[in-house]
Design goal:
Layout lengths: L2 E7 L2 E6 L4 E6 L3 E8 L1 E5 L4 E5 L3 E4 L4 E7 L6 E8 L1 H10 L15 E4 L2 H8 L13 H18 L4 H4 L10 H8 L6 H7 L4 H12 L3 H18 L5 H4 L8 H12 L10
Antiparallel strand pairs: 1-2, 2-9, 3-8, 4-7, 4-9, 5-6, 5-8, 7-10
Helix pairs in contact: 2-3, 6-7, 8-10
Length: 271
């Protein structure tokens, strides 16, 4: 069994990748609180790459673009417990609990590494026995578990309200700046439009005006330029690079690379 996902509630699940890595360019509608039981996860953002291991917890903010790579490790599958912190539940929480001052200050979305804090580990580990019940967790119990997790997050991560208590939808932003930072993420054009505060039609129109070409042609060229830099200047292998630069399979990456630059990524120039 290569992949399995178990839900004990609409907002609480456990995932398992047995014998292969998993890769996805993600844009979550909810905040996701993740406890990694075993395996390894690599998160690639516009400016940084992070690696987290077994026992670590992390928070993915909603509307954040990232590439997620999950790997089995040390003979164990990639297994994690995931809790969705939905806007509805967070609004209910903050109606009863005041957010910290300054929580609405504009900030760049980034995922939070929370380490192996015992309070958070205890909170999420307490969910594991429920997966053995083979029945849905009552909503009242799920609500208590989620509220406990929010309380713990606020206790151990000062400033987390800037993420959790911010319910604003993406507004219209500078398209050029956004695309230059996020071109490596393989997202539908509708998602790029949404994140820049535009309809698909307006996004394509504004893109053509800014870059004098279509989004797809520009994205392919930028991704290949990044891959070329990683392979030629950083001496990384194509198999290490293609997923992080927006390509879905190695064969297509090799073909596109050679078509763009006139030689294969593994080929010595001048040979």
């Amino acid at each position: 069994m290569a992949y399995q996902i178990e839900y004990i509630h609409n907002d609480i699940k456990r995932s398992c990748f047995e014998d292969r890595f998993f890769k996805a360019d993600v844009l979550f509608e909810d905040h996701l609180l993740v406890w990694l039981i075993s395996g390894e996860t690599r998160i690639v953002q516009a400016d940084n790459t992070y690696t987290v291991g077994a026992g670590d917890t992390l928070l993915f903010p909603r509307h954040m673009l990232a590439t997620v790579l999950n790997y089995p490790k040390d003979g164990l599958p990639h297994r994690s417990v995931v809790m969705h912190l939905t806007t509805t539940r967070l609004k209910e929480y903050y109606e009863k609990n005041e957010a910290s001052p300054g929580h609405t200050v504009a900030h760049q979305l980034t995922f939070q590494t929370l380490g192996q804090h015992p309070l958070l580990k205890s909170c999420l580990a307490s969910l594991v026995p429920y997966f053995d019940l083979k029945e849905q967790l009552p909503d009242a119990i799920a609500a208590l578990k989620i509220e406990e997790a929010i309380h713990v997050l606020r206790a151990i991560a000062p400033g987390i309200d800037r993420h959790l208590a911010n319910f604003a939808e993406p507004g219209k932003i500078n398209l050029v700046n956004f695309m230059e930072r996020n071109y490596m993420f393989n997202m539908p054009m509708e998602k790029f439009g949404y994140l820049t505060g535009r309809s698909l039609t307006t996004f394509k129109r504004d893109f053509k005006k800014a870059f004098q070409t279509t989004p797809q042609k520009w994205l392919t060229r930028k991704r290949l330029e990044l891959a070329h830099y990683q392979v030629r200047q950083k001496n990384r292998k194509p198999s290490e690079v293609y997923l992080e630069t927006g390509f879905e399979n190695l064969s297509h990456f090799n073909y596109a690379f050679k078509r763009q630059f006139g030689y294969a990524p593994t080929e010595e120039i001048g040979s």
